[in-house]
Amino acid sequence: MTTARVFTVILTLAGVLAGAPAAGQVPLRQTEADAYTRYELLAPGSGKFRILYDVTATTAGARYYFNPIRTGSIATDERVVDRASGQPLVFDVVGGSVARAGGVRVSDTSQQYIRVTLARPVPDSGGEARVRIDKTYEDHKSYFVRGDTIVFDRPLGIKRNAIVLPVGYELLSCNYPSQLLQEADRRLTVSFWNITPAEAPLVLRALPSSAMQRTAAPLPAPLVSRLQERAVQNREIVYFLQQPETHAFDLYHDYTEDREGVDHYINVVRAGSTVSNPSARNLDTGERLAFDILKGSAITAARLNVSDVTATTEAVVFRFPPVRPGSSVRLRMSETYTDAARYRLDGELLVWDRVFGRPANAVVLPAGWILTNSSIPATLTTLPDGRTRLDFVNPRPDEIAVLLTARRRQAK
């Protein structure tokens, strides 16, 4: 047993007390979002792969996040980072009883967890704590050699994943629809977004290739712009439709900015729409952000990076402190739009007709309306207040044209 693990055992009793709720209280259930896993396959035959796991803790007030260590895998070289600041976080390894006291719904008390002490409690009202867990697993059942071929055979429950082959390997087969992208160091990355409710039963095979060892000429810029990993993108938007006679809808969109020195986000209002009631906040801290609404020549005068500005061009500029080296900021921008062309009442029929470019989009119908058509596949849920929510996930790097219709539950 390593020194770190011995230290963890010593801390476990204290951890039970620190993570336990007050007497008589039921801990809030641990919730999370935006999970993305990158598996980097290490030396063939070692059974080892490095895991970079990005996840967002979303339980308001939570001080800890618990990440399970998969049974049958040996975890080493653990490191945890706060993605907002880029600074390391304190963590230890605890058992299922501690995780349960911290809000994890677990019945197997033999399960082990990495318990991360968050940089700050998760802010209320939709705040987040973004964490990156870096660890190496050894699991010969998941990653093994068969002849000259390496095999990665592992069911993946996280919806957004990337598997990086060792340098010099070509991909022979992959049973799950995926992007194939070559990195700067010549390694191939197999990346996908699992849009099903089940685990992805991933099996991929790769073979050493002398051609993959050679340095290739850089790709032309137009090709590079089209070869972006979709699964790593975490821009998302939710539309809350008001009654269709108003042509209005509230929305919020979440975005992570990690470019050093950037201190604002520009939302150019789509032609034909008008915007009102903007607001924004930093989801990492809960702080409200300042903003300006600029139009036409005011956009040009502010020297904003907006192309094709006309007298009617409108933009909302949200401002925040410049991003520091190694850090990032998670933003939530909220606005109300009016768009008679794309959201309207056609006789007695509600019509929503809008193109989505982000990978994750959701539309909530107004109260009292029944969905009758959706041109693009979506998952459907009924909210506690009875409204219908549709979630559209587009794993491809293109746009989807969403046409929805709905009818009133009770005719006027």
Description:
With 412 residues, the protein is mainly beta. The protein has three domains: 1-33 and 55-130, no CATH class; 147-234, no CATH class; 236-408, Immunoglobulin-like (Sandwich). It is built from four helices and 28 strands. It has helices at 3-19, 96-101, 221-224, 297-301; strands spanning 32-41, 48-57, 64-68, 74-82, 91-95, 112-117, 129-138, 143-146, 149-156, 160-164, 169-174, 179-182, 188-193, 200-208, 236-241, 248-257, 264-268, 274-282, 290-295, 314-319, 329-338, 343-346, 349-356, 360-364, 369-374, 379-382, 388-393, 400-408. The strands form six sheets. It has a seven-stranded mixed sheet with strand order 4-7-2-1-10-13-12, with no helix packed on it. It has a seven-stranded mixed sheet with strand order 18-21-16-15-24-27-26, with no helix packed on it. A four-stranded antiparallel sheet has the order 8-9-14-11, with no helix packed on it. A hairpin with a 5-residue loop joins strand 26 and strand 27. The longest helix is centred in the first third of the chain and has 17 residues, at 3-19. The radius of gyration is 24 Å and the shape is globular. This is DUF3857 domain-containing protein. It comes from Gemmatimonas phototrophica. Residues 1-22 form the signal peptide. Keywords: Signal.
Task: For the structure shown, list the relevant keywords.
signal; globular; 7-stranded mixed beta sheet; disordered N terminus; 3 domains; 412 residues; single chain; 4 helices; Immunoglobulin-like; mainly beta
